[in-house]
Amino acid sequence: MADTDVIIRRGHLLSSLIDKVHCGSILASIVHCYYELYGKDYAADLVTKFSKLFTLFFYNIIEKIYLDVLLLPPGV
Question: Does residue 76 fall inside a structural domain?
């Protein structure tokens, strides 16, 4: 099994990681497979949920970065 192989079983990511190649517009992406299996409405819903997930993830990272920058060490 290669690092690029993704195993999802019963909605849980069991192996590997999901990066932009797996979520992108290539023929073997998750979105394309979802479209082929469940149709355009469910694929559109998946893209919307990915968007919300990535947005929350980046807001969480940015908030932590800003807090680290804004918190000054004692005595400054």
Answer: no
Tell me if 39 is assigned to some domain.
yes
Are the C-beta atoms of 51 and 23 separated by less than 8 Å? no
33 falls within a domain: yes
Q: What is the pLDDT of residues 44-68, one digit of tens each?
A: 898 888 888 878 877 777 766 666 6
Total-model pTM: 0.55
Give yes or no for a contact between 7 and 14, defined as CB atoms under 8 angstroms apart. yes
Q: In angstroms, rounded to a whole number, what is the distance separating the alpha carbons of residues 76 and 71?
A: 10
